[in-house]
Amino acid sequence: MNENEKQHAISVLNKILELELAGVVRYTHYSLMVFGYNRIPIVSWLKGNADESLAHAHKAGEFVTMLGGHPSLKIGPLLETEKHDIGDILRESLEQESTTLKAYYELLAAVEGKSVSLEEYAREMILLEELHLDEVNKMLRKPGEMQPFSE
């Protein structure tokens, strides 16, 4: 990778780091705002997502430093909608995950054919994000509904 390509990859990795850190904050907040009969499994799932986002942020930061960059101290956009219905939380999660997935695709495009390690990392994260999006999508469907959720 030439210097411009490396700087672009660092920029995208920092964007991913910021988005994943926003996911930590968002999922932690959501886990505190769940009430009702299904609270325990949903809170557990949300805490797991926060932990996963933190691990993803750390991995992105490691790649930033591997390339000689400085990991961002910023956090991606956080929007408090004041909506705490489980459906609202899941729809907001879909939006967050979709934005993060786009960033991983952006990284893949930037490093494809230039860095095997970054390319494999981007592909692995794309797979995980797409599976996570599918999981959330299925949670938004009514029982027995086969078609994917769409707004």
Order of SSEs: HHHH
Secondary structure class reads mainly alpha
Number of strands: 0
The total number of structural domains is: 1
Tell me the β content: under 5%
What is the CA-atom radius of gyration, in angstroms? 16 Å
How far the N terminus sits from the C terminus, by CA atoms, comes to 41 Å
CATH architecture level-2 label = Up-down Bundle
Approximate helicity band: over 70%
CATH superfamily: Ferritin, core subunit, four-helix bundle
Most strands sheet: none
Rounded mean pLDDT score: 93
What labels would you give this structure?
Ferritin, mainly alpha, 151 residues
Which helices and strands appear, and what pairs or packs with what?
Layout: H1 3-32, H2 39-66, H3 86-111, H4 116-140
Concise description?
The chain is built from four helices and no strands. The chain has 151 residues and is mainly α. Helix 1 packs antiparallel against helix 2 (39-66), helix 1 packs antiparallel against helix 3 (86-111) and helix 3 packs antiparallel against helix 4 (116-140).
Could you describe the 3D structure shown?
By secondary structure, the chain is an all-alpha fold. It has a single domain (3-138), classed as Ferritin (Up-down Bundle). It is 72% helix and 0% strand. It is built from four helices and no strands. It has helices at 3-32, 39-66, 86-111, 116-140. The chain is elongated. The model has no long low-confidence stretch (mean pLDDT 93).
